[in-house]
Amino acid sequence: MAGRPTVVAGSDLAVLAAVGGQVRADGPVIAVSPAVRGAAVDGFAAAVPAAGGWDAAAAQVVAGWGAPRVLITCPAPVPRRQLAGSGPGDWQAALDSNLGTAAAACRAFAPVLRGPGPAAIIMLAWEPSGGPGQVHLAAASGAIKLLALALAADLGGDGITVNAVTAGEDDLAAVGPVLELLLLADAGYVTAEVLRVGAS
Amino acid sequence: MKGAGEAGGLDGRVALVTGAGQGIGAAIARRLAAERAVVAVNALHPEKAQRTADQIVAGGGRAVAVPGDVASAEIVDALVGHVESAAGPVEILVNNAAILKMAGFLELDPADFDRTIDVNLTGVMHCTRRVLPGMLAARWGRIVTIASQWGRIGAKGASPYSAAKGGLIAMTTALAREVEHDGVIVTAIGPGTVDTPQLNEDAAFMGLSLDEVRDRYSQETLIGRIASPEEIAGLAVWLASDNAVAMSGQTVPATGGRSE
Fold this sequence. Notes:
The structure holds two protein chains of two kinds. Chain A has helices at 13-20, 54-65, 88-113, 135-155, 176-182, and strands at 6-9, 29-33, 46-49, 70-73, 119-126, 160-167, 194-196. By secondary structure, chain A is α/β, with parallel strands linked by helices. Chain B folds into two domains: 14-192 and 228-253, NAD(P)-binding Rossmann-like Domain (Rossmann fold, 3-Layer(aba) Sandwich); 195-226, no CATH class. Chain B has helices at residues 23-34, 46-58, 73-86, 110-138, 150-153, 159-179, 198-206, 210-219, 229-239; strands at 14-17, 38-41, 62-65, 92-95, 141-146, 184-191, 251-254. Chain A binds chain B through residues 24, 26, 69-70, 118, 120, 152-153, 156-157, 159, 161, 174-178, 180-181, 183-193, 195-200, and chain B through 1-4, 6, 173, 176-177, 180, 191-192, 221-224, 227, 230-235, 238, 243-250, 252-257, 259.
């Protein structure tokens, strides 16, 4: 019998596909995104649109495949732009596509992740490279990391671990092993942490 | 989520686990043996090393007891030599041996401070330095060090222990940078409170019963419990496997969300 589904959520389908292809799970891996237009996204068993609202998307996942055990939220690309030369729209777009999407996905899926058995939320965020033009990316990513820590406190009593994983834009293809580590049956004591891909 | 048996590439690997007479180290030794590694079981006291080795063999695994004090370079050299003769070069080193004597900084005997650093930090250096050349020659090796959350944040009554564990965390990253391109992956785990015999020492220092200490530590976590040695063992074995390359240099925290 197939296991409970894993949901990979985010604003950008290319990032979703890159991450989804690295997820090793017993159950179906389902993409959920406002950018989903059809029923298929490369590398996923199914795709669910979130343009009509994240709560509706969560309900559709539960109805179709059962309550998920894992939610992975993905970042979206942020154009490099120095703060002094950018407008409020650039700032808002970076926050909406990264922090806003992650928060909305967690808000919708956290209730259905609750029991029976352990569950996990993993929030992926970009690791700034340190070069110029990354203020928007850094702010959005920093906010996601702290959101994960705070959410871990809220959900710890429900048996849901919440961790953040940061990766450089060129390291996204190497995120699979870190996801695997956090999804081990023995990783239930790892929560409220930020792990990095390619740390050393 | 996956259970035991998922760590790849350990069949027939020779592993040395220090401080494996009880607690986390014994759990790691058992789990490595379950993954079909040949396990050299180190402990300071010969009877404890033998007991863990006997448990593994009774369960169908392969193990040899190699007791000795890791604070001594000469003893480490001899016990690793014994492993090499009995099973082959050490391919996986789990640095777990540690001591912790709870005492306020000014009440602590300087000899106890030195002994804690000697075992918990210098002992790791001795073991690592002894097995690393073989790993580099084979272009495959895994070094997993059991650090501590207290090595990140410090702890009242545990100044030498915290200092040693902090040193291990930094050493892990530094050494990883030296050897990761030669097939040797160096990682660490930073556990929070684990249900081991060490809790008796904590209880005595705090003037509490063992159950009261367990309750207090559990309440300080986000998930309301302390860890089992088997959970830490599961992480350690995964870091000893082929999967661990992406974690090079990192200390994986396992604290239950505890931050102080």
